[in-house]
Amino acid sequence: MKTKIILFSVVLFLMAGVSFAQKKNEPKSIISEKVAIKKYHKKEELERMQKGELLTLYMERIEVLTKTLPYIAFATKPGVTMSTLGIPNDNDNRKILDNQFESTDDYFEATTEFHKKILPYSDTSKLISAIIFYEEIMKSLHEYSAYN
After folding, report:
1. Are residues 47 and 128 in contact, defined by beta-carbon separation less than 8 angstroms?
2. How far apart are CA 145 and CA 31, in angstroms?
3. How far apart are CA 7 and CA 54, in angstroms?
4. How confident is the model at residue 64 (pLDDT cuts 50, 70, 90)?
5. Closest to 35 measured CA to CA, from 99, 94, 79
6. Which residue in 29, 42, 108, 146 is a FRET match for 124, CA 20 to 30 A apart?
7. What does the pLDDT read at residue 8?
8. How many whole angstroms separate alpha carbon 94 and alpha carbon 107?
9. CB–CB of 82/25 below 8 Å?
10. What angle do CA 15, 32, 144 make, to 5 degrees?
11. What pLDDT score does 37 carry?
């Protein structure tokens, strides 16, 4: 009985290791699935919001742009991988992409800390204008992808 449990545990452990190894080699999306604007706003909607809500929207738009704009030569929407672009999905290229994601995350984290401390001092009307501007950029990216 004890032998069966040990054997079963070893087999389970090996299967888990194989599944993790396969996921490690899967092609990664160049643009994260998590990065998207859920809703675009009109100026009137934004004017009715509290400043705290506006600050959150502003920082969300910064995140989307930070994690999308560097890759528009490849894609403007999530789901495109190196493999779909014909880039070899080898260890070196995955490592380069991982390093790029890590650098982008570090930059965004530093920017967020700055915005949390300084952005509350901004003028509400300028904050609204910036949010609308960022949303227009995102709409333009969708138009850009339609021409390719």
Report:
1. yes
2. 14
3. 57
4. very high
5. 79
6. 108
7. 57
8. 20
9. no
10. 140
11. 85
Crossing angle for the helix pair 91-118 and 51-66, nearest 10 degrees?
A: 160
pTM: 0.77
Instruction: Give the Å distances, CA to CA, from 27 to 59, 64, 76.
Output: 29, 21, 17
The secondary structure of residue 41, as a DSSP letter, is: -
For the cut 90, the answer to whether the pLDDT of residue 44 exceeds it is yes
CB 129 within 8 A of CB 44: no
Instruction: Please answer whether residues 46 and 128 qualify as being in contact, where contact means their C-beta atoms are separated by less than 8 angstroms.
Output: yes
What is the spatial distance between Cα 19 and Cα 122, in angstroms, rounded to a whole number?
49
Question: In this structure, which amino acid lies at residue 55?
Answer: L
Structure-token pair, residue 42: 């009109």
Q: Give the end-to-end CA distance of the chain in Å, rounded to a whole number.
A: 63
What is the residue-wise DSSP string for 70-137? GGTTT-SSTT-BTGGGT----HHHHHHHHHHHHHHHHHHHHHHHHHHHHGGGS-HHHHHHHHHHHHHH
| Residue type (1 letter), 85 | L
Which amino acid, one-letter code, is at 147? Answer: Y
